[in-house]
Write a structure and sequence with these properties.
The complex is a heterotrimer of chains A (415), B (495) and C (120). Chain A is α/β, with parallel strands linked by helices and 415 residues long. Helix content of chain A is 20%, strand content 34%. Chain A has eight helices and 28 strands. In chain A, strands 1, 2, 5, 6, 7, 8 and 20 form a seven-stranded mixed β-sheet that branches. Chain A has a five-stranded parallel β-sheet with strand order 10-18-12-13-14. Chain A has a five-stranded mixed β-sheet with strand order 23-21-28-25-26, with no helix packed on it. In chain A, helix 1 packs parallel to helix 2 (62-75) and helix 1 crosses helix 8. In chain C, strand 2 and strand 3 (24-29) form a beta hairpin. Classes of the chains: A alpha/beta (415), B alpha+beta (495), C alpha+beta (120). Strand 11 (151-152) of chain A pairs antiparallel with strand 23 of chain B.
Amino acid sequence: MQEIDIVIIGGGCSGMSAALSAYKKGVKNVLILERNAYLGGVLKQCIHNGFGIHRFHKDLTGTEYAKKYIDEIDDNQIPYLLETAVLDISKDRVITAISPSKSLIKIQAKAIILAMGCRERSRGALMIPGTRPAGIFSAGTAQKYMNLEGYMVGKKIVILGSGDIGLIMARQFTLEGAKVLAVAEIMSYSGGLRRNIVQCLEDFNIPLYFNTTVTKIEGLRRVSGVWLASVDKHKQPIPSTMRLIECDTLILSVGLIPENELTISAGIPISESTGGAIVNDSFQTNIPGIFACGNALHVHDLVDYVSFESEAAGENAVDYVSSTSPISNDTIRVTEGFGIRGAVPHKIQLNTGKEKVKFQFRPDRPFGPSLVNIYSENECIYSTKKQVMTPGEMCELSVPIKNMKEDIRIEVVPT
Amino acid sequence: MFDAIVIGAGISGASIARELARYKLKILVLEKASDICVGTSRGNSATVHSGHDTLPGSKKAYFNVLGNAMYEVLCQELSVPFMRNGTIVFATTEKDMETIYNLKERADANKVPDVQVLDRKGLIKIEAGFGNDVLGGLYAPTGGIVCPYTLVTHTCYNAAKNGVEFLLNTEVSHIKKVNGMWLINTNHGNFTAKYVFNCAGTHADIINNMVSSKSFKIIPRKGEHIVLDKRFANLVKATISQTPTDLPGGGHTKGMGMMPSVDGTLILGCPAYEVEDPDDSSTQENGLNQIINYFVQYWNCFPISKDIPQFPKKDIINCFGGVRAHLDTDDFIIGEVEDAPGFFNAVGIESPGLTAGPAIGRYLVTEAANKYGFEKNFNFYPHYICKKPFREMNDSERIEAIHENPDYGKLICRCEQVTLAEIKAAIHAPIGASSIDAVKMRTRAGMGRCQGGFCSPEVLRILADELGVTPLEITQRGEGSNVLVGRIGCSEKEE
Amino acid sequence: MKKELVCINCPIGCHLSVDIENGMASNTTGNLCYRGCDYAKQEAIRPMRILTCLIPVKGLDKPLSLRTDGLIPKDMIFSCVAELKNYHPSPPIRCGDMIIQNICNTGCNMIATMDILANY
């Protein structure tokens, strides 16, 4: 059985960032396992710009951002296997994978970095009633058809969900000559960036309907129309508001879910809140030596932060295999109070010599001016002012560890 | 010129076609949809009923019990996943316990083996975790689960390998007797046969009424199912339902149930209500809500609640609808039509149709063979042998498979672990897949958590390559359902 | 006259108001930082955008992704997209290669944002 020091599962932005940082910190025996025939993951289908502003101080397209990492991987000759799908990870860090050229391989890893990314929520999971015609796509799948294969998926399009992927595709469809008839958003606010609302919808006079959802799909062989309806405060459709929009395509941009079948198969517990592995402040899961980062850990908005996070995870993996990780017997848990969703990390190691811990979270609704407080033993040990917070943009806090004694709670206090 | 024509390629038509192949006959199956197994046989709860709830003396009861007993051998012959996981019907009131005793009486009258009435303790011995409201129930160990579309497709493949011809996209418009033969007009030409078998599902009334003055009307009945993620696979064993209860929001049903599937998903369902359109298997909001409302209310009764305390709405991965053919006599019509000799009906095949199908096939064809003196075909080969799905293989089986065929090393559907080899095999099968849904039905590619989000572009590309057409020609489910509408960068004029 | 718009530079999304007279912008109000002021003046007079899009590649299904290497006026986006039809790049193409020089006289070039090195 092959023995590798650090195996990175996933060769997208997260996996490449982790591999590079591990390599640069001194562990050369690393290996990236990627199931596609190319590195870069979802970045390869992101032809729009807005990537790299924080990481490279440049405004790049997703493809340009990916190329920077891919070139650096190749320049450093960092090992990777393409068309290699991981089937299983055991508790003892044995990885089983297959590829057409190498058949079934088993690798004993000293450390594993889970960087599998995420998937999109589907029509089936939303249970939108109606028929099952051609012409229903999740935004990412439509993006793949367009940008990697060169095909148009429809001509008259309705988009459900105002997350960034849906907004970006609204613009791209329009530039390619399709008509985007409407974007429906079930919440009263958009999950996407303000920039994208302006540059993808307002620029093209594409109507955005808040508090609106799709209640039925029509069409036998191909979508012939969708019914839109306004929703009440319980997000239930109001029947009198139902109207039929004739279209040939429904695009779903209704949420991303971290991809964690492998995490579960290793017996690693998943956080209900993030959908990804439960990790401590080193991004380590409950299995020593198995780390998680990127969208597989929690869904990010900006790829730059995926890179920062994954670079840290890579360095922590190096510390682990070199046995230079800080050892701590005290671990406290992080709980989510009012207004907080998806807080990462879920646990913090005390007395490791580390001064600060970086928290990431999302507000569970839009907030105006408010405080984000951290409580330990009912004492407020940290407080910061936020002018505005929205669920569509992940927030960060850098918090000193020294006052954390017991389990802590993060909470929003509107002011 | 055929000896026998079968109309419809669902469980009834497939079973009859295969049974006919045991005789020296020239056989043709006509299917109006773009693929086999697209009607009722596709959208159901995949249950092999024990037969305890069918009316004694009815054809439903007779063929249910007979069919149930055939499943081990049949599924082994045809390489179909099947499990006898047992059926439990529970009651939460004394009145419902009376229903349980009635079911036991029916089970005995129908000669269903080993059925017991159990109190709460007895039920818990079989599966721990029944809620406090559960007073007792019926346990029918012969109940089972099967993959319905694998059964139908493999039955068809076996029939095809034994010489049966299949024509898809072929709809019967007219049948009449001409010179002692049946003349069948379709949109793809005319065909003649000595014997016709009407297995046309929700359209079987139209077909029957073309030849017989004893006409009837099928009442299409629709019901939805909800599919839960595989992560609960280890937590459930038996198929469990409640005695028929007043559903929140109205409607009647055999009883809302939780059906583990052979694939590891959990199927919840199903309501039953009449619809106008015999082909309308779309899901409806009220149907889906009925299921959800029921399970939100009664979740704690089910044993799974000991591990999963609340109905896991976040773990719903899909839902589907299915229409079945109901007759107001509430029973099957099986047999030769009195005023149309040589024309056989297998009609009204709603639940327990999947269970009964193989038995109906055997019975009907045997009747026909005896009456009309069919000659036995000693070359009939009953087996459909195929490689185990990759996801079920162990490491050494996988190594061997990849060694023989490197396409087994290329994973296409990550959620269901379907490889390129299996997708190609589905496309080149005796009745091959030529659309995305057809590949999905045969391989499970696209049935997992991401519902084809990742793999469908790859499946589309593979279909185009294997069929030698451009990606623009690939359909979701047959003609008129092309997935892609054009190339980027083309003007209206160019396209 | 006054023009109202929402700033896109950060999540706060200040509601900005700009005076426009004789094609000149002045007196921006509502901004919390200088970036809002700069943004408002340009956006109110002549909004500028980066254009990213696709162009078919000769002999391949896979398209080439392109971008403008600078900001172009929003009102020229569709002209530039239409202009793409006159170009038929073929491999090998490297990320950064100029595909169209000074597209539609915007002063910006369309450059490739990916490599397409082979004919297959």
